[in-house]
Write a structure and sequence with these properties.
Layout: E1 7-12, H1 15-22, E2 30-33, E3 39-44, E4 51-56, H2 61-75, E5 79-88, E6 98-106, E7 110-113, E8 116-119, E9 122-125, H3 128-139, E10 146-153, H4 164-172, E11 178-180, H5 183-193, E12 197-206, H6 212-217, H7 220-238, H8 246-249, E13 256-258, E14 261-263
Parallel strand pairs: 1-4, 1-5, 5-12, 6-10, 10-11
Antiparallel strand pairs: 2-3, 3-4, 5-11, 6-9, 6-12, 7-8, 13-14
Helix pairs in contact: 1-7, 2-5, 3-7
């Protein structure tokens, strides 16, 4: 595939999440291996200008931050998405819904004092370009219930909504609609790397309560991961590479003629194109 094609990276933590995204890659994908062993699978995302590289990083925010930094420096993508499953923090966010992170909180920072724990929030906003693409994409997805809301991220698997940690999140991060483990690390890496659009997309697989294990055994993670991947692909179909425009994206039928030049946008050449103008009579 042409290496000049714009690239987007989709990161996952779990095999079920990786498989859900991988299902959207076209034939002819290839595995790329970093010198330090990190692997991505790269292929064309049909119906778009994007090459898509998908990676399975494993669990945890620190791991996500380190490997995201490595992948961004290696592949130099235009955008990075973290796609996977999460637990719900709101009664109106049901299993099977998708939460798209307008904000991602790192929820465990703070200061312990004689007066109690004082939260010191860290927060990263989803890229406006990707958030706007998500708003548009959700309007065209029948049967998908999406929420553009904040997401809480901490290295905790929450299975008790009555726990002290759950109360802490409700008190200090009350607008969070979902909780997961990796998003903050990934978006922080994107932030410090420079001009990389970043977004976290999570399918809801459980209610962050004691029924989590039963929900997982019933296939909720597979369904939630598939739904999150579906939304991620829809977002990328709306999201345009930098430098493109709505007008440029329609110029794919071949050469266009205007005045004394020919516009070959959409063509692929391995060298310079040389032409000669010839005056015609009649």
């Amino acid at each position: 595939m042409p290496q000049t094609s714009p690239l987007v990276v989709v990161l996952t933590a779990l095999p079920v999440e990786y498989d859900a995204v991988r299902a959207h890659l076209g034939d002819g994908s290839e595995e790329l291996v970093h010198d330090d062993g990190t692997r991505v699978e790269c292929g064309r995302l049909a119906g778009t200008d994007w090459r898509l590289a998908v990676a399975e990083l494993g669990e945890g925010s620190m791991n996500a931050a380190a490997l995201t930094t490595q992948i961004l420096g290696w592949l130099r993508p235009e955008a990075v998405l973290f796609v996977g499953v999460a637990g719900s923090l709101k009664e109106d966010v049901a299993i099977g819904d998708v939460v798209i992170g307008t904000k991602v909180y790192a929820v465990q920072g703070g200061k312990v004092t004689p007066d109690g724990f004082h939260a010191r929030p860290e927060v990263w906003h989803g890229s406006n370009r990707l958030v706007q693409a998500a708003r548009s994409a959700l309007r065209g997805l029948d049967g998908v219930r999406g929420h553009l809301k904040p997401i809480a991220c901490g290295d905790v698997v929450l299975t008790d909504q009555e726990s002290a940690f759950a109360e802490f999140v409700r008190r200090h991060y009350n607008d969070s609609n979902a909780i997961e483990m990796e998003g903050a690390g990934a978006v922080h890496a994107a932030h410090v790397s420079g001009q990389v659009d970043a977004l976290v997309i999570r399918g809801i697989s459980d209610a962050a309560d004691p029924d989590k294990s039963a929900a997982d055994k019933g296939g909720s993670q597979e369904r939630a991961a598939a739904r999150a991947a579906e939304v991620a692909v829809a977002v990328l179909r709306k999201h345009r590479p930098r430098g493109s425009s709505a007008a440029a994206s329609t110029d794919r039928e071949g050469a266009r003629y205007g005045g004394d030049h020919i516009d070959f946008r959409g063509g692929v050449f391995n060298g310079p194109v040389v032409g000669k103008r010839v005056e015609r009579n009649g």
